[in-house]
Design goal:
about 15% strand; about 325 residues; 11 helices; Rossmann fold; 12 strands; binds UDP-4-deoxy-4-formamido-beta-L-arabinopyranose; globular; alpha/beta; single chain; two-stranded parallel ribbon
């Protein structure tokens, strides 16, 4: 969306394993443009090669990965095969087209429970808490080594907690089945599609006892991708792999998110405390200095705005949960 609005020609490659083709209708409704879409599995080397053959790409933003932490514990091979297979195949293309910039969708999960908050990019990468987190850690290593060997310039963007939807309520998150993440569960519960929200843990060493995260509006996240891609297209990349945290720099507890949702939407949410969830860290929020000073990017949207946009998207979806 953000790239189309800036006049870029966009090629979408998605096998619909975790979204629906209708997303193209939403993109067209908002931008007036319908990007070319290739329905192929990027983890299939032959399919990936044939799909990209003949395309002179200025840049690739690699989002194509499974991202449910809990599912990755149950199905580790599915995550390694898909998340790393697709990465290797795309890096094979970039190695043969070194002028093509490469942006990797990484994650703050690489930090685990950081020793210091806010978390800077040079905080130590800790043992992954899940196969999902491990695919992000291994993915960064694969990129760093390949880029160094092939003289590539790449960027890894470490997302904190993306939330919200496009303000038009035409495109947004479509979680498969019961949402694992907090905000889609909140909106589906408020819409009557799920029971009360379980707040996982109220005995954390935080102000209100609930865990703290850095919730960033997905449109702010999208803008950061455009800025990072333009850095590489303009030949400003500095290292084989530069790393940037993408967060707001503010931590919010689960209770604060609930309060924000209720005040921003006027909807009352049913919730109850439940035991802690395995694998959760106590608190994680970003030091955003590097993204500000090097990319010239800061998150602009508030938690309340994200809640409002997430709720508008849920209302637009109606009872049609993916
Ligand atoms: C947030 C908080 C839960 C659900 C996510 C992604 C991960 C990465 C980082 C991008 C935690 C609590 C949740 C619920 C709850 N993003 N919670 N009840 O675990 O921080 O990880 O962001 O790569 O891919 O999964 O996000 O939304 O699952 O949880 O109390 O029903 O909400 O315990 O404290 P998380 P989350």
């Amino acid at each position: 969306m953000v790239l189309l609005e800036k006049g870029y020609e966009v090629l979408l490659v998605d096998n619909l394993s975790n979204t629906r083709a209708e997303v193209l209708d939403g993109i067209e409704a908002i931008s007036g443009k319908r990007p070319e879409w290739l329905n192929i599995d990027l983890a299939d080397p032959a399919a990936c090669r044939s799909a990209l053959k003949g395309h002179q790409l200025d840049g690739i933003i690699h989002f194509a990965a499974y991202k449910a932490v809990g599912e990755s514990v149950q199905e580790p091979l599915k995550y390694y095969q898909n998340n790393l297979g697709s990465l290797v195949n795309l890096l094979d293309y970039v190695s043969q087209h070194p002028s093509c910039g490469f942006i990797f969708s990484s994650s703050c999960t690489v930090y685990g429970q950081a020793d210091q908050l806010p978390i800077t990019e040079d905080a130590p990468v800790k043992a992954a808490e899940s196969p999902y987190g491990n695919t992000k850690q291994i993915g960064e290593e694969i990129i760093r080594e390949t880029a160094a060997a092939k003289g590539l310039k790449t960027i890894a963007l470490r997302y904190f907690n993306p939330i919200g939807a496009h303000a038009s309520a035409r495109i947004g998150e479509l979680p498969l089945g019961v949402p694992q993440n907090l905000v889609p569960f909140i909106t589906q519960s408020a819409a009557g599609l799920r029971g009360p929200l379980s707040v996982y843990g109220n005995d954390y060493p935080t102000e209100d006892g609930t865990a703290v995260r850095d919730y960033i509006h997905v449109v702010d996240l999208a803008q950061a991708h455009r800025v990072a891609l333009e850095r590489l297209i303009q030949g400003q990349g500095q290292d084989p792999m530069e790393v940037f945290n993408l967060g707001t720099g503010t931590g919010s507890s689960v209770l604060e998110v609930i309060q924000s949702f209720e005040s921003a939407t006027g909807e009352a949410l049913q919730w109850a405390y439940a035991p802690r969830r395995a694998g959760d860290v106590i608190a994680a929020y970003a030091d955003t200095t590097k993204a500000r000073d090097v990319l010239g990017w800061v998150a602009e949207k508030s938690l309340d705005e994200a809640m409002k946009d997430a709720w508008a998207w849920q209302v637009a979806l109606g009872s049609d949960s993916h």
